[in-house]
Amino acid sequence: MTTSDNIREERLKKLEKIRALGINPYPANFDKKQSIAQTREMEGKVVKTAGRILSFRTHGNIAFADLKDETGKIQLFFKKTELGDESYKNLMLLDIGDYVGVEGTVTKTIAGELSIIPTSYTLLSKSLLPLPNQWYGLKDVEARYRQRYLDLLLNPEVRQRFDIRTKVIRELRHYLDNLGFWEVESPVLQPLYGGANAKPFVTHLNALGQKMYLRIADELYLKRLIVGGYERVYEIAKDFRNEGVDRTHNPEFTMIEWYEAYADYQRVMDVTEGLFKYLANTINGNTKMKIDEMQIDLSGKWPRITMAQIMKNKLQLDVENITIENLLAYCKNEKIEVLGGESKGQLIFLIFEHKIPKTLINPTWIIDYPIEMSPLSKEHRSKPGWVERFEGYIGGREICDGWSELTDPLIQRERFTSDVKATRKDKEEAQQIDEDFLTAIEYGMPPTGGIGIGIDRLTMFFTNTWAIKEVILFPTLRKEE
Known about the structure:
By secondary structure, this protein is of the alpha+beta class. The protein has 15 helices and 18 strands. Strand 12 and strand 13 (294-297) form a beta hairpin.
């Protein structure tokens, strides 16, 4: 039997004694009047608060415990003279990890420690399993992810990280709401997946006897709403992609997408740049950010550089005039894997992704992408073969992706068809031919700009935490045997 099993056995015996005394070890509620943070501002006053016991020690007729709730921690100073013989004796039935409620006066001990001297206490939940040693905490990474409740309890910086995630989402809504956007909801279960190049999760809807997909993006439904008369919409959505798990990708993740009628990609970049500056000022108090060990300032106008120009500047590749043969030779020389059959645009994008992002440290917009890589983007108004698409980069990492939306239904059909035929490792990653969406835009869709930003990636950015499992409360993990 393990130490944990022995402790559980002992606590079960205490639980029996508690029940034998007529005490309910799991009551339905407690009238908590103050948070622990509030009690710390109430010296000399009677308070009524509750939390979890994190330490417990007795010395004859007195006992000490540390009580913690989500706002802070305070010492409990139990005295036999205040509680009476029976109530003080029953303190021995309490353990570290138990939830208790207390009522008493806030005072300072002789040692100067702010404490509550309880005149009464109530067991609110009996803990049967021991908490990991608070001095060593919960350090094993796998255990932290599987038992996030202990991770949050024992590692304060983890709770702070998820508090920032909540603030990011709250302030994101506030920013867009103030610009006149409507928050909407679109289906998670879809009869056809689309809006991104990704492999879907497949399920079966018994009631209708048909195959269904978990959405990989909400783009095509939000565009339907633009057709329906909404001019500014956004959704904070759970998306699902049946792909690899690594430091920056989780099969289940959260995105925000927004779409604005009568806007193009230049306008969407303006709004997004303003968003990042607003979030930085609201969450951090200024626009200076730490990315890895780099200090980066989000203020000022972010440069907008075409993909062709950045590749000419950094790689000395004139991709607008170079031949496919030269691009293939470059890939071979740089050990960039190709599948065979790639178009010129696919090769340009492949080289860009392998060589350029890590060099983009200060906030930078890369604009104008090969048409083959962007089946939902509007063709560039002055450069054939390119589309009005952008990606934002900070600290050598991509942070967002958007474009002027393609609104011509005939060209959109051609793009869907071409994307299905395009060379890629997995054909399921292609944009499917969505007849309902094509019908919608045949009714007429105004000029529109749109963008998608990963909420997980935003949280990584604003916490300088570059492992996606650290910013998802319950990340996807392999099932334990």
